[in-house]
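FAQ

Q: What does a record look like?
A: Structure on top, sequence underneath. For example:
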């Protein structure tokens, strides 16, 4: 019975994808507009920023060094990024297991690129790794690193959405 249900779900999703794809295929990127990609990236950036800042605050409060604080910040960025996506998918009535799979498929590349750029900028910015939460340098470097991460990740999301991946998968649950 479960196999029949999964087959039906897969078939319905496939039909939905074909229906959308047929209406959205204009050019090589489908209907993946820059606005759509920017909204997906902003959604991802929100979760990443919450996780990053929380990780840095917790690591600093606990007196941790740069490496463990950065690892915590990255882990929390993924957690909050996935969490924001899960919230919307679960609200659409999708079961937890399926929602987790959709969130992982939709957000992993986007969050990974964002974290690579964001943390890479912080690593190479002179003094940024040693700046404290009360230093303007900390907040300036963080803001610029997140802005650069947004700029680099938006084309990645546009490419993925145009191919029916990433936030294109999540979009079907927002109707």
């Amino acid at each position: 019975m479960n196999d029949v249900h999964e087959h039906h779900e897969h078939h319905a999703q496939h039909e939905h994808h074909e229906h959308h794809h047929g209406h959205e295929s204009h050019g090589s990127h489908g209907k993946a507009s820059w606005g759509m990609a920017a909204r997906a990236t902003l959604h991802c950036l929100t979760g990443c920023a919450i996780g990053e800042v929380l990780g840095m605050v917790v690591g600093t409060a606990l007196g941790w060094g740069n490496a463990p604080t950065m690892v915590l910040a990255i882990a929390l960025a993924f957690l909050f990024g996935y969490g924001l996506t899960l919230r919307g998918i679960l609200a659409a009535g999708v079961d937890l297991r399926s929602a987790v799979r959709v969130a992982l498929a939709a957000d992993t590349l986007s969050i990974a690129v964002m974290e690579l750029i964001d943390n890479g900028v912080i690593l190479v910015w002179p003094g940024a790794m040693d700046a404290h939460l009360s230093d303007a340098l900390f907040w300036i470097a963080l803001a610029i690193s997140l802005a650069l991460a947004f700029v680099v990740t938006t084309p990645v999301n546009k490419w993925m959405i145009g191919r029916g991946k990433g936030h294109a998968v999540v979009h079907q649950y927002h109707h």
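Q: Is there anything notable about this one?
A: The two ends are 28 Å apart (CA to CA).
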